[in-house]
Amino acid sequence: MHHQPLARHIQELQRQVASLHRQMSAAHARQASALAALFATIGTALEKLRQIETSQSSQADRSSTHEHLGRTTGNGHVRAALPAVDSQPYVVGLERTAALTESEQARRYQPQIMQIITDNATAGLFMMDAQGRCTFMNPAAEQITGYTFAEIEGQILHDMIHHTHPDGTPYPMAECPIDRALPQNNQMRAHEDVFVRKDGTFFPVSCAASPIIKNGVPVGTVIEVRDITVRKRAEEERTRLFEAEQRAVRKAQQQAQQLRGLTAASIAVNVALSVTDVLQLITEQSRQLIGAHQAVSSLTVNEDWAQAITTISLSDKYAAWHDYHAPTNGSGIYAEVCRTNVPLRLTQAELVAHPAWRGFGAEAHAHPPLRGWLAVPLIGRDGRNMGVLQLSDKYEGDFTPEDESILVQLAQMASVALENARLYTAAQDAIHARNEFLSVASHELNTPITSLRGYAQLLIRQIDKGGEINMERMQRALRSIDQQSTKLVELINQLLDISRIESGRLILKCQPSDVAQLAREIAASLQATTRQHDLIVEAPTPIIATIDPLRLEQVLTNLIGNAIKYSPAGGPVVIGVAQPAPDAIEISVTDRGIGVSPEHRAHIFDRFYQAHGAGHFGGMGLGLFISQQIVTLHGGQMLVEFPPEGGTRFVIKLTAPGS
What we know:
Elements: H1 4-23, H2 29-69, H3 88-120, E1 124-129, E2 134-137, H4 139-145, H5 149-152, H6 157-161, H7 177-180, E3 188-196, E4 202-214, E5 217-227, H8 229-271, H9 275-290, E6 292-301, E7 304-314, H10 334-340, E8 344-346, H11 348-353, E9 373-379, E10 385-394, H12 401-465, H13 471-503, E11 511-514, H14 515-527, E12 533-538, E13 544-547, H15 549-565, E14 571-581, E15 584-591, H16 598-601, H17 623-633, E16 637-641, E17 648-655
Parallel strand pairs: 12-14
Antiparallel strand pairs: 1-2, 1-5, 3-4, 4-5, 6-7, 6-10, 8-9, 9-10, 11-13, 14-15, 15-17, 16-17
């Protein structure tokens, strides 16, 4: 039929479009789908054109047939048909004429077809000449860029929509891969970039560019552009969700690991028996659980930082500071945590800006640097502060609320374990002290009893012999019996006092008394027991206080007796009584004896404790403990000082009447 050339032309266009469709990569399926839709639109448009052309051709056929096969005469009659033998040339001529007509029609309709294709394309289409000037853009390109073709025609396309990077830096045309496609005669597909709209906003695109070749020479470029903003947002959302999921997984894994670590730490610290072992374990475990380069744990002794125990754990990052062990003094920012018993979590900037931050003071030259800080208090069962657990320089980022929660749990376990370790240590010390006491007490009690038995047996033998009795020897024996029995009574009284103190049954019988006179009487009594020592009482005026005279006499006798005992070379023992304020009385006993070595000073008032070792000077280690308890019952305080020139100075501080 005569419309076959146009059909063949349509089929050729369809074949080319289908070929382009097959060339689309799987990664650009959406572009392929859009192209398929365009293909359907083209097919519909071409089908309409073919129907129009077919209708016109049918009319032409009928007209031509009448023209050649029958002619109307002037009087309205139709000429006779041509003989059959002569009809073939006319048929051939008819087909040739129809073919020429359809070819002309195809050429005539081709611009309309191309217009339909470009107008209905969902992708933006541009054409540039060899100089990069825009010579064509379809409606989709206008919608994407915000420019009309009238605004952009003849302009350098790169300078209009591709002139700047998203960071604001210029994008030279020489670096643009799209503009390089023409001179390099290269096709570019699936290139992702960022273009600039008319209003200056940036938008992501996917581009394809192909050079236009004429007589073997590239003369222009066809560019297909798709706005992939929606796709990019979807990708970013998927990436965000994936990263959030990964963070959640990592966080869950970290929390599970931390819980396992807490369990392991709980087992480890409860197995450890000594305070130092527990503290070192907690320090190591806290650093590893949270993931930090520095950990420091400090445990105070009766809230006294001078006696604090400190352990340190440092990663290899701080290998240069592994030997650093400066003692804590309670002046750092950690003291704020101990004072409030509230955790404190700070970034490095917050740490430096904190009003309690004082730097490292004298240790600034030696202390390892900090990077952020997390500290939690160690709190005992009674709610009092025991110390602090500190971390610094986390492996990644800053310390989080989750880190703080884990460290608080670890600190709670540590506090229980430390108290248990202290109780265990105290129990062991008590057992040791008991055994030591039993050994000393048996020795101390056995000594006077042995003497008593010895002198008693001596007297019995002398009486049994009859005859004249040596009165001098008897007096010496009886005197020794009296002395040893007195000593035995004192030892028994000390044991009774311990029992009364522990049960709360030690009752004072207080009355106004002259403390200065009491000191003189005691000094005079004890002076008779020694010739090597001078007992000097410095009490110029009577000083009245409400005291139990017998109990205070017991205390002063013990202190002066110790001064004599621990000054084996003799020398002065000064007993001072003063009233430094109207409501205060101070009694002191000072000697120049052997003193007490530093390692024993903290325990000098402990029960059963002997600073100079059992058996060296006798006694059960109860005198100072009982004396301090008696002074405390008076509402006073007993202190000990160690003068630089040597010896010991005990001070009793009491309250004057009416204060």
